[in-house]
Amino acid sequence: MTTPPGHRRLILTRHAKSAWDDPSLDDHDRPLNDRGRRSARELGDWMASRGYEPEEVLCSTARRTQETWEKIAGAPLEVRPIIRMEQSLYHASPERMLKVLQSATQPTVMMVGHNPGIASFAAQLPARPPLDPDFRRYPTCATLVVDFQIDDWKDIRPGDGSVMDFIRPDGRD
């Protein structure tokens, strides 16, 4: 599903469920657990089935966000996006996430990040939030697809988005 002229689409994803098996690991280095890998693959299949194909991916440098993107990208997506690993997205505030998004160059962007910032950022974007009771909590692997009637990401303003979809792949956190 391509984005029409004068529109931009954001696919905003919280990383999938991570493993806590090794307490000696730094938070930045935690991998996904089995459920997280399954959820991320399921999310990739869901995105492909709806034609939500990012042309640019803005991803935190944390291992769990990178693994989430890798599992999503394993789905039969037709587009090969530009990938930007962004250190500043690691536990980013909503304001930092907005700044990174404003630097995007492609019409359809996927951003993969962390709570609590991503939940706050997601809540600021649409004019009307999804009715899903878990939207404000933004559980692991939750994904919001939101469209904006703008020509350039520099023009994005919170509260101007239209929700296209919201999914929680495994319905748990």
TrEMBL record:
Q: Under which name does UniProt file this protein? A: Phosphoglycerate mutase
Question: Where is the sequence biased in composition, kind Basic residues?
Answer: 1-17
InterPro entries given in the database record: His_Pase_superF_clade-1, His_PPase_superfam
Q: Where is the composition biased (Basic and acidic residues)?
A: 25-36
Where is the region Disordered?
Answer: 1-36
Signal peptide positions (record):
none
Q: Which SUPFAM superfamilies match?
A: Phosphoglycerate mutase-like
Species of origin:
Paracoccus tegillarcae
Q: Give the superkingdom in one word.
A: Bacteria
Q: Which PANTHER family match?
A: OS09G0287300 PROTEIN
Q: Which CDD domains match?
A: HP_PGM_like
